[in-house]
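Sample intake — N-acetylglucosamine/diacetylchitobiose ABC transporter substrate-binding protein
Collected from: Streptomyces coffeae
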Amino acid sequence: MGSTPDVGRRDLVKRSAALGLIAVPSVSVLTACASGGDDDSNKVDKGKKTAKNPLAVNESAGLDVVIFDGGFGQQYAKDAEKEYSKAFPKTAGKVKHSATQKIQTTLQPRFNGGTPPDLIDNSGAEQMDFGTLVGKKQLTDLTPLLDAPSVDDPKKKVRDTLRPGVVEMGQFDGKQVWILYYAYTVYGVWYSKSNLEKLGVEYPETWDDMLAVCAKAKKKGIAGWTYPGKYPYYLPFSLYPFIAKIGGADVLDAIDNLEANAWKHPAVKAAFEAYYELYRKGYILKGTPGLTHIESQTAWNQGKALFIPNGSWVENEAKKTTPKDFQMAVGAPSSLDSGDKMPFGTLWASGGEPFIVPKSAKNPEGGMELLRIMLGEKSTKNFVQQVSSLTSLNGGTEGLSLPPGLASAQEVLKKAGKNVVNPRLQDWYVALQKQQIGVGALGEMMAGRMTPAEAIKKIQKFADATAKDDAVKKYKHV
């Protein structure tokens, strides 16, 4: 997504985020990707544990890093790798860096052969299925990294420097942490302050106001909304927190837990019907169902549509086509009515751009050490300046002049306070979220080929099938 969401990128997504042009591989394909064995004989010897080397990195061993080349690019990782070689001079020239948008296709043979990289940014449309990787015990527990001292303050553990919820996102069942989400993504309804000002309106805090703004825009020949029609799993970036706002965070928890009839909750029905009204009243940009994420973002930047569901990686990803006076901003989902369970300002914000260290990695300590460096203030500020996104380090923006979109993301995050939701469906059940719910139902509904009732029925059927599939490892909120 930034991942994409494809998040994930960025996974979410993720980053979320989907930046390749290939559909998400099926669970069966991803299962094959996680079939390699763990051979300790291939691992490099550990180094000596010291205050400067708390993870006992082999100071002369090579390091193999694969980065998802999406909305965040790869320069931030290259810069962190330089810091790694400064810390361990004998590794100079031994850090292998590669980048791809086709993570699963590129790395499947390496997992199968038991020779995966030491650190992977597992994001994008070809993101490997985390549930499968965890279930097949293919990942290294990152607890040693989290319990190591931070780069900036030896008195603080890395885990104590992270934003709320980041550690928990990397857990699936138990205390082990399998994933470190490096970016911190704010999801929502993105818009241009200048374009709203030209129309003489403000960001709509109620759904009635949203429809009124869209109606006014339509009279001017401007669409209310657009979205990546080819990757409609972007829609949940604003739809899921909308559902939570209407019915409470427990509704999303039930959905994540694959509970029977979870999708039949009245809040889901209300949210789906509200979004469907955007289609029914002609407020969706014509041709949107055929657009990629880049094409929809470009149309939005060109002022053809006012709103787009997205994650905070969009500012960097769309910068080439963003006008200088655009004043990019993000809004929390509008209130449906006075009966909403959560206040206006409720939004989805969570870790994005998921990093993993394979269990069969040759140098897992090196992979974790690079992550420790990336979570330092120097690397964080470099990331923020390069890609207009926060990291999971709780801070790192002091003294920086933030671009409009990132400044807005910080503002809405502060306003949300404790009213932040974190749906887990996109990292627990990737195929269900992207292929089935996103492409198979939401995309069809928003294109007018399926009613809200039909979409809900179909999604519930998909969720039930996943719940009954013994080949799919299940996870639950605790």
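Post-analysis note: The mean pLDDT is 91.
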